[in-house]
Amino acid sequence: xxxxxxxxxxxxxxxxxxxxxxxxxxxxxxxxxxxxxxxxxxxxxxxxxxxxxxxxxxxxxxxxxxxxxxxxxxxxxxxxxxxxxxxxxxxxxxxxxxxxxxxxxxxxxxxxxxxxxxxxxxxxxxxxxxxxxxxxxxxxxxxxxxxxxxxxxxxxxxxxxxxxxxxxxxxxxxxxxxxxxxxxxxxxxxxxxxxxxxxxxxxxxxxxxxxxxxxxxxxxxxxxxxxxxxxxxxxxxxxxxxxxxxxxxxxxxxxxxxxxxxxxxxxxxxxxxxxxxxxxxxxxxxxxxxxxxxxxxxxxxxxxxxxxxxxxxxxxxxxxxxxxxxxxxxxxxxxxxxxxxxxxxxxxxxxxxxxxxxxxxxxxxxxxxxxxxxxxxxxxxxxxxxxxxxxxxxxxxxxxxxxxxxxxxxxxxxxxxxxxxxxx
Length: 424
Prior knowledge:
Blueprint: H1 28-35, H2 38-46, H3 60-72, H4 77-86, H5 88-93, H6 108-136, E1 146-155, H7 163-180, H8 190-205, H9 209-237, H10 243-257, E2 275-277, E3 287-297, E4 303-309, H11 315-330, E5 336-339, E6 352-355, H12 363-370, H13 375-384, H14 395-423
Parallel strand pairs: 1-5, 5-6
Antiparallel strand pairs: 1-3, 2-3, 3-4
Helix pairs in contact: 1-14, 3-14, 6-14, 7-8, 7-9, 7-10, 8-9, 9-10
Protein backbone atom coordinates (compact mmCIF):
# COMPACT_ATOMS: atom_id res chain seq x y z
CA UNK A 1 0.00 0.00 0.00
CA UNK A 2 1.08 3.58 -0.65
CA UNK A 3 3.12 5.05 2.26
CA UNK A 4 1.31 7.22 4.75
CA UNK A 5 3.38 10.38 4.92
CA UNK A 6 3.78 12.13 8.25
CA UNK A 7 1.88 15.32 8.93
CA UNK A 8 2.73 17.88 11.60
CA UNK A 9 0.38 17.57 14.56
CA UNK A 10 -1.54 20.70 15.57
CA UNK A 11 -1.41 19.86 19.28
CA UNK A 12 1.71 19.32 21.40
CA UNK A 13 2.35 16.08 23.24
CA UNK A 14 2.25 16.53 27.00
CA UNK A 15 4.96 13.93 27.74
CA UNK A 16 7.28 14.44 24.76
CA UNK A 17 9.31 17.38 23.59
CA UNK A 18 9.41 18.38 19.94
CA UNK A 19 12.72 18.08 18.14
CA UNK A 20 12.52 21.75 17.14
CA UNK A 21 12.85 22.61 20.84
CA UNK A 22 15.85 20.33 21.38
CA UNK A 23 18.15 21.01 18.43
CA UNK A 24 19.75 23.99 16.73
CA UNK A 25 17.73 24.65 13.59
CA UNK A 26 20.74 26.39 12.01
CA UNK A 27 22.62 23.09 11.97
CA UNK A 28 23.72 22.08 8.42
CA UNK A 29 21.57 18.93 8.45
CA UNK A 30 18.48 20.92 9.42
CA UNK A 31 19.08 23.40 6.63
CA UNK A 32 19.80 20.57 4.17
CA UNK A 33 16.48 18.95 5.08
CA UNK A 34 14.70 22.11 3.93
CA UNK A 35 16.60 22.17 0.62
CA UNK A 36 15.69 18.64 -0.53
CA UNK A 37 12.34 18.47 -2.32
CA UNK A 38 10.74 15.68 -0.33
CA UNK A 39 7.31 16.22 -1.88
CA UNK A 40 8.63 15.34 -5.33
CA UNK A 41 10.21 12.18 -3.94
CA UNK A 42 6.91 11.20 -2.31
CA UNK A 43 5.04 11.66 -5.58
CA UNK A 44 7.67 9.76 -7.58
CA UNK A 45 8.15 6.77 -5.26
CA UNK A 46 4.57 6.60 -4.01
CA UNK A 47 3.51 5.43 -7.48
CA UNK A 48 5.62 2.27 -7.01
CA UNK A 49 3.19 0.92 -4.39
CA UNK A 50 -0.13 -0.77 -5.05
CA UNK A 51 -3.30 0.94 -3.87
CA UNK A 52 -5.52 -0.65 -1.23
CA UNK A 53 -3.59 -3.89 -0.65
CA UNK A 54 -0.98 -4.79 1.92
CA UNK A 55 0.46 -2.92 4.85
CA UNK A 56 1.16 0.81 4.33
CA UNK A 57 4.76 1.46 3.39
CA UNK A 58 7.11 3.45 5.58
CA UNK A 59 7.29 7.21 4.88
CA UNK A 60 9.26 8.11 1.78
CA UNK A 61 11.23 10.82 3.57
CA UNK A 62 12.40 8.31 6.19
CA UNK A 63 13.52 5.72 3.62
CA UNK A 64 15.16 8.19 1.24
CA UNK A 65 16.75 10.08 4.14
CA UNK A 66 18.34 6.91 5.49
CA UNK A 67 19.79 6.18 2.05
CA UNK A 68 21.24 9.70 1.93
CA UNK A 69 22.71 9.43 5.43
CA UNK A 70 24.18 6.01 4.71
CA UNK A 71 26.17 7.17 1.70
CA UNK A 72 27.04 10.56 3.18
CA UNK A 73 28.70 9.07 6.26
CA UNK A 74 29.86 5.72 4.75
CA UNK A 75 27.74 3.41 6.92
CA UNK A 76 26.13 0.03 6.46
CA UNK A 77 22.38 -0.53 6.73
CA UNK A 78 22.72 -1.76 10.33
CA UNK A 79 24.97 1.13 11.38
CA UNK A 80 22.80 3.87 9.91
CA UNK A 81 19.70 2.55 11.73
CA UNK A 82 21.58 2.31 15.06
CA UNK A 83 22.99 5.82 14.77
CA UNK A 84 19.61 7.21 13.69
CA UNK A 85 18.20 6.30 17.10
CA UNK A 86 21.03 8.17 18.86
CA UNK A 87 21.09 11.33 16.71
CA UNK A 88 18.22 13.86 16.95
CA UNK A 89 19.52 15.77 13.94
CA UNK A 90 19.26 12.65 11.78
CA UNK A 91 15.71 12.09 13.00
CA UNK A 92 14.76 15.67 12.14
CA UNK A 93 16.36 15.27 8.70
CA UNK A 94 14.20 12.19 8.09
CA UNK A 95 11.00 14.03 8.99
CA UNK A 96 10.39 13.07 12.62
CA UNK A 97 8.53 15.53 14.82
CA UNK A 98 9.35 14.00 18.21
CA UNK A 99 12.50 12.25 19.39
CA UNK A 100 12.25 8.47 18.85
CA UNK A 101 13.82 5.99 21.28
CA UNK A 102 13.43 2.90 19.09
CA UNK A 103 14.55 1.99 15.59
CA UNK A 104 11.89 2.87 12.99
CA UNK A 105 12.52 -0.25 10.88
CA UNK A 106 14.57 -3.37 10.44
CA UNK A 107 17.76 -2.82 8.41
CA UNK A 108 16.66 -5.44 5.88
CA UNK A 109 13.83 -3.11 4.82
CA UNK A 110 16.40 -0.75 3.31
CA UNK A 111 17.45 -3.56 0.97
CA UNK A 112 13.86 -4.18 -0.10
CA UNK A 113 13.33 -0.46 -0.62
CA UNK A 114 16.34 -0.25 -2.94
CA UNK A 115 14.95 -3.14 -4.96
CA UNK A 116 11.62 -1.34 -5.20
CA UNK A 117 12.98 1.97 -6.52
CA UNK A 118 15.62 0.33 -8.74
CA UNK A 119 18.39 2.07 -10.67
CA UNK A 120 16.02 4.76 -12.03
CA UNK A 121 14.94 5.68 -8.52
CA UNK A 122 18.57 5.94 -7.43
CA UNK A 123 19.21 8.33 -10.33
CA UNK A 124 16.28 10.42 -9.13
CA UNK A 125 17.85 10.60 -5.65
CA UNK A 126 21.04 11.88 -7.31
CA UNK A 127 18.98 14.41 -9.26
CA UNK A 128 17.49 15.75 -6.02
CA UNK A 129 21.00 16.35 -4.63
CA UNK A 130 21.93 18.30 -7.77
CA UNK A 131 18.86 20.51 -7.33
CA UNK A 132 19.71 20.97 -3.65
CA UNK A 133 23.24 21.97 -4.66
CA UNK A 134 21.87 24.59 -7.03
CA UNK A 135 19.52 25.96 -4.36
CA UNK A 136 22.30 26.11 -1.74
CA UNK A 137 24.85 27.72 -4.05
CA UNK A 138 27.27 24.80 -3.83
CA UNK A 139 27.20 24.64 -7.62
CA UNK A 140 26.26 27.41 -10.05
CA UNK A 141 24.03 26.80 -13.10
CA UNK A 142 26.81 27.92 -15.44
CA UNK A 143 29.09 25.19 -14.02
CA UNK A 144 26.85 22.51 -15.56
CA UNK A 145 27.97 23.51 -19.05
CA UNK A 146 31.62 22.45 -18.43
CA UNK A 147 32.09 18.87 -17.24
CA UNK A 148 34.89 16.37 -16.72
CA UNK A 149 34.31 12.67 -17.37
CA UNK A 150 36.45 9.73 -16.28
CA UNK A 151 36.12 6.04 -15.39
CA UNK A 152 37.22 4.04 -12.38
CA UNK A 153 36.72 0.57 -10.92
CA UNK A 154 34.22 -0.10 -8.14
CA UNK A 155 35.52 -3.25 -6.49
CA UNK A 156 33.12 -5.92 -5.30
CA UNK A 157 33.17 -7.32 -1.78
CA UNK A 158 34.91 -10.59 -2.68
CA UNK A 159 38.13 -12.20 -1.57
CA UNK A 160 41.03 -12.20 -4.05
CA UNK A 161 40.11 -15.03 -6.44
CA UNK A 162 42.29 -18.13 -6.73
CA UNK A 163 41.46 -21.37 -8.53
CA UNK A 164 41.86 -23.56 -5.46
CA UNK A 165 39.65 -21.44 -3.24
CA UNK A 166 36.97 -21.20 -5.95
CA UNK A 167 36.89 -24.98 -6.42
CA UNK A 168 36.68 -25.51 -2.65
CA UNK A 169 33.88 -22.96 -2.09
CA UNK A 170 31.84 -24.23 -5.03
CA UNK A 171 32.16 -27.85 -3.88
CA UNK A 172 31.04 -26.84 -0.40
CA UNK A 173 28.01 -25.01 -1.84
CA UNK A 174 27.05 -28.04 -3.97
CA UNK A 175 27.30 -30.37 -0.95
CA UNK A 176 25.15 -27.98 1.06
CA UNK A 177 22.53 -27.95 -1.71
CA UNK A 178 22.47 -31.75 -1.80
CA UNK A 179 21.85 -31.90 1.96
CA UNK A 180 18.99 -29.42 1.60
CA UNK A 181 17.38 -31.70 -1.01
CA UNK A 182 17.95 -34.80 1.20
CA UNK A 183 20.18 -36.39 -1.45
CA UNK A 184 23.04 -38.52 -0.11
CA UNK A 185 26.17 -38.13 -2.20
CA UNK A 186 28.62 -40.95 -2.70
CA UNK A 187 31.36 -38.85 -1.11
CA UNK A 188 31.43 -35.18 -0.09
CA UNK A 189 35.26 -34.74 -0.02
CA UNK A 190 34.92 -32.29 2.85
CA UNK A 191 38.03 -33.45 4.69
CA UNK A 192 40.12 -34.16 1.58
CA UNK A 193 39.25 -30.84 -0.06
CA UNK A 194 40.21 -28.90 3.05
CA UNK A 195 43.54 -30.72 3.21
CA UNK A 196 44.26 -30.10 -0.48
CA UNK A 197 43.47 -26.39 -0.16
CA UNK A 198 45.77 -26.06 2.85
CA UNK A 199 48.59 -27.81 0.98
CA UNK A 200 48.08 -25.67 -2.14
CA UNK A 201 48.42 -22.47 -0.11
CA UNK A 202 51.47 -23.81 1.72
CA UNK A 203 53.25 -24.88 -1.46
CA UNK A 204 52.46 -21.55 -3.16
CA UNK A 205 53.87 -19.66 -0.17
CA UNK A 206 57.05 -21.74 -0.40
CA UNK A 207 57.28 -21.06 -4.17
CA UNK A 208 56.84 -24.76 -4.95
CA UNK A 209 54.45 -24.02 -7.78
CA UNK A 210 54.42 -27.46 -9.41
CA UNK A 211 53.19 -29.06 -6.17
CA UNK A 212 50.70 -26.22 -5.64
CA UNK A 213 49.21 -26.77 -9.12
CA UNK A 214 48.94 -30.48 -8.40
CA UNK A 215 46.81 -29.80 -5.31
CA UNK A 216 44.70 -27.32 -7.26
CA UNK A 217 43.99 -29.96 -9.92
CA UNK A 218 42.98 -32.32 -7.11
CA UNK A 219 40.47 -29.74 -5.85
CA UNK A 220 39.06 -29.46 -9.37
CA UNK A 221 38.67 -33.25 -9.53
CA UNK A 222 36.78 -33.24 -6.22
CA UNK A 223 34.41 -30.56 -7.50
CA UNK A 224 33.79 -32.41 -10.77
CA UNK A 225 32.97 -35.65 -8.97
CA UNK A 226 30.50 -33.99 -6.62
CA UNK A 227 28.76 -32.10 -9.46
CA UNK A 228 28.42 -35.23 -11.63
CA UNK A 229 27.19 -37.28 -8.68
CA UNK A 230 24.51 -34.75 -7.78
CA UNK A 231 23.43 -34.34 -11.42
CA UNK A 232 23.00 -38.12 -11.87
CA UNK A 233 20.92 -38.46 -8.69
CA UNK A 234 18.73 -35.51 -9.58
CA UNK A 235 17.87 -37.16 -12.90
CA UNK A 236 17.40 -40.59 -11.29
CA UNK A 237 15.10 -39.43 -8.49
CA UNK A 238 13.18 -36.98 -10.69
CA UNK A 239 12.75 -34.64 -7.73
CA UNK A 240 11.82 -30.99 -8.03
CA UNK A 241 15.00 -28.97 -8.45
CA UNK A 242 14.83 -25.38 -7.10
CA UNK A 243 15.97 -22.61 -9.39
CA UNK A 244 18.88 -21.65 -7.13
CA UNK A 245 20.27 -25.21 -7.32
CA UNK A 246 20.12 -25.09 -11.13
CA UNK A 247 21.98 -21.78 -11.10
CA UNK A 248 24.58 -23.19 -8.73
CA UNK A 249 25.21 -26.24 -10.92
CA UNK A 250 25.50 -23.99 -13.97
CA UNK A 251 28.12 -21.91 -12.15
CA UNK A 252 30.01 -25.07 -11.18
CA UNK A 253 30.07 -26.33 -14.78
CA UNK A 254 31.18 -22.89 -15.96
CA UNK A 255 34.00 -22.95 -13.40
CA UNK A 256 35.10 -26.45 -14.42
CA UNK A 257 35.16 -25.58 -18.12
CA UNK A 258 37.03 -22.27 -17.94
CA UNK A 259 40.71 -22.17 -18.85
CA UNK A 260 43.54 -19.74 -18.22
CA UNK A 261 42.82 -17.68 -21.36
CA UNK A 262 39.01 -17.97 -21.23
CA UNK A 263 36.83 -14.89 -21.47
CA UNK A 264 33.90 -14.16 -19.16
CA UNK A 265 35.54 -16.07 -16.33
CA UNK A 266 33.91 -16.73 -12.98
CA UNK A 267 35.75 -15.01 -10.12
CA UNK A 268 33.25 -15.40 -7.27
CA UNK A 269 30.51 -17.95 -6.71
CA UNK A 270 28.17 -15.52 -4.93
CA UNK A 271 28.89 -12.69 -7.42
CA UNK A 272 29.16 -14.08 -10.98
CA UNK A 273 28.91 -10.55 -12.43
CA UNK A 274 32.40 -9.63 -11.17
CA UNK A 275 34.89 -8.72 -13.91
CA UNK A 276 38.68 -8.48 -13.93
CA UNK A 277 39.82 -5.00 -14.93
CA UNK A 278 43.33 -3.68 -15.48
CA UNK A 279 43.63 0.12 -15.19
CA UNK A 280 47.40 0.31 -15.48
CA UNK A 281 48.06 0.91 -11.77
CA UNK A 282 51.49 0.00 -10.45
CA UNK A 283 50.35 -0.92 -6.94
CA UNK A 284 47.28 -2.89 -8.03
CA UNK A 285 47.57 -4.50 -11.43
CA UNK A 286 44.12 -6.10 -11.48
CA UNK A 287 40.88 -5.05 -9.79
CA UNK A 288 37.77 -7.20 -9.50
CA UNK A 289 34.45 -5.43 -9.81
CA UNK A 290 32.77 -3.27 -12.43
CA UNK A 291 33.78 -0.18 -14.37
CA UNK A 292 32.02 3.04 -13.33
CA UNK A 293 31.69 6.28 -15.30
CA UNK A 294 32.03 9.47 -13.25
CA UNK A 295 31.03 12.95 -14.46
CA UNK A 296 31.69 16.11 -12.40
CA UNK A 297 31.50 19.81 -13.07
CA UNK A 298 34.84 21.21 -14.17
CA UNK A 299 34.69 24.17 -11.77
CA UNK A 300 33.11 22.92 -8.52
CA UNK A 301 33.73 19.12 -8.63
CA UNK A 302 29.99 18.47 -8.14
CA UNK A 303 28.87 15.03 -9.33
CA UNK A 304 26.37 15.34 -12.19
CA UNK A 305 26.53 11.75 -13.47
CA UNK A 306 27.41 8.28 -12.20
CA UNK A 307 26.68 4.94 -13.83
CA UNK A 308 28.03 1.41 -13.81
CA UNK A 309 29.42 0.09 -17.11
CA UNK A 310 29.23 -3.73 -17.12
CA UNK A 311 31.16 -5.66 -19.72
CA UNK A 312 34.35 -3.57 -19.38
CA UNK A 313 33.62 -1.39 -22.45
CA UNK A 314 36.16 0.92 -24.07
CA UNK A 315 36.07 4.36 -22.41
CA UNK A 316 35.44 6.20 -25.67
CA UNK A 317 32.30 4.17 -26.33
CA UNK A 318 30.81 5.18 -22.96
CA UNK A 319 31.18 8.95 -23.35
CA UNK A 320 27.89 9.53 -25.17
CA UNK A 321 25.96 7.63 -22.47
CA UNK A 322 27.60 9.75 -19.75
CA UNK A 323 26.70 12.99 -21.55
CA UNK A 324 23.12 11.80 -22.04
CA UNK A 325 22.83 11.04 -18.34
CA UNK A 326 24.15 14.52 -17.45
CA UNK A 327 21.50 16.14 -19.64
CA UNK A 328 18.83 13.88 -18.17
CA UNK A 329 19.70 14.72 -14.55
CA UNK A 330 20.51 18.42 -14.84
CA UNK A 331 18.36 19.53 -17.77
CA UNK A 332 21.42 21.23 -19.24
CA UNK A 333 23.34 19.97 -22.26
CA UNK A 334 27.13 20.14 -21.63
CA UNK A 335 28.85 22.43 -24.11
CA UNK A 336 32.40 21.32 -23.31
CA UNK A 337 33.73 18.04 -21.91
CA UNK A 338 37.27 17.28 -20.70
CA UNK A 339 38.55 13.70 -20.74
CA UNK A 340 41.85 11.83 -20.64
CA UNK A 341 43.51 10.09 -23.55
CA UNK A 342 41.64 6.86 -22.85
CA UNK A 343 38.67 8.41 -24.68
CA UNK A 344 40.40 8.69 -28.04
CA UNK A 345 38.15 7.57 -30.87
CA UNK A 346 34.90 8.63 -29.19
CA UNK A 347 31.84 9.08 -31.45
CA UNK A 348 30.54 12.28 -29.79
CA UNK A 349 29.85 15.11 -32.23
CA UNK A 350 27.31 17.45 -30.58
CA UNK A 351 29.56 18.36 -27.59
CA UNK A 352 33.07 19.78 -27.75
CA UNK A 353 35.37 17.12 -26.30
CA UNK A 354 38.91 18.14 -25.33
CA UNK A 355 41.47 15.41 -24.65
CA UNK A 356 44.27 15.71 -22.13
CA UNK A 357 47.73 16.67 -23.48
CA UNK A 358 46.04 18.42 -26.44
CA UNK A 359 46.71 22.14 -26.17
CA UNK A 360 43.45 24.02 -26.89
CA UNK A 361 43.66 27.32 -28.72
CA UNK A 362 41.63 29.48 -26.30
CA UNK A 363 43.12 30.54 -22.91
CA UNK A 364 39.85 29.73 -21.10
CA UNK A 365 39.93 26.18 -22.45
CA UNK A 366 43.57 25.76 -21.39
CA UNK A 367 42.67 26.90 -17.89
CA UNK A 368 39.72 24.47 -17.72
CA UNK A 369 41.87 21.64 -19.06
CA UNK A 370 44.26 22.09 -16.12
CA UNK A 371 41.32 21.34 -13.83
CA UNK A 372 40.63 18.02 -15.53
CA UNK A 373 42.97 16.27 -13.08
CA UNK A 374 40.75 17.41 -10.19
CA UNK A 375 38.40 14.50 -10.92
CA UNK A 376 41.03 12.05 -9.59
CA UNK A 377 40.83 13.24 -5.93
CA UNK A 378 37.02 13.35 -6.29
CA UNK A 379 37.08 9.63 -7.12
CA UNK A 380 39.51 9.05 -4.27
CA UNK A 381 37.20 10.80 -1.79
CA UNK A 382 34.23 8.75 -2.96
CA UNK A 383 36.28 5.61 -2.33
CA UNK A 384 37.69 6.62 1.05
CA UNK A 385 34.87 8.77 2.48
CA UNK A 386 32.01 7.07 0.62
CA UNK A 387 31.17 3.51 -0.42
CA UNK A 388 32.66 3.45 -3.91
CA UNK A 389 35.78 1.59 -2.78
CA UNK A 390 33.95 -1.65 -1.93
CA UNK A 391 30.46 -2.56 -3.04
CA UNK A 392 28.44 -4.87 -0.77
CA UNK A 393 25.17 -4.76 -2.76
CA UNK A 394 24.19 -7.90 -4.65
CA UNK A 395 24.14 -8.41 -8.40
CA UNK A 396 24.41 -6.08 -11.37
CA UNK A 397 21.48 -4.04 -10.02
CA UNK A 398 23.42 -3.51 -6.80
CA UNK A 399 26.40 -2.27 -8.82
CA UNK A 400 24.25 0.27 -10.68
CA UNK A 401 22.52 1.56 -7.55
CA UNK A 402 25.63 1.77 -5.38
CA UNK A 403 27.50 3.79 -8.00
CA UNK A 404 24.72 6.37 -8.33
CA UNK A 405 24.15 6.65 -4.57
CA UNK A 406 27.88 7.19 -4.01
CA UNK A 407 27.62 10.26 -6.24
CA UNK A 408 24.63 11.48 -4.21
CA UNK A 409 26.59 11.04 -0.98
CA UNK A 410 29.51 13.05 -2.38
CA UNK A 411 27.18 15.90 -3.36
CA UNK A 412 25.60 15.97 0.10
CA UNK A 413 29.03 16.19 1.73
CA UNK A 414 29.84 19.21 -0.43
CA UNK A 415 26.52 20.88 0.45
CA UNK A 416 26.94 20.20 4.18
CA UNK A 417 30.46 21.62 4.09
CA UNK A 418 29.17 24.81 2.48
CA UNK A 419 26.26 25.11 4.91
CA UNK A 420 28.60 24.50 7.85
CA UNK A 421 30.92 27.29 6.65
CA UNK A 422 28.09 29.83 6.59
CA UNK A 423 26.76 28.51 9.90
CA UNK A 424 30.06 29.36 11.58
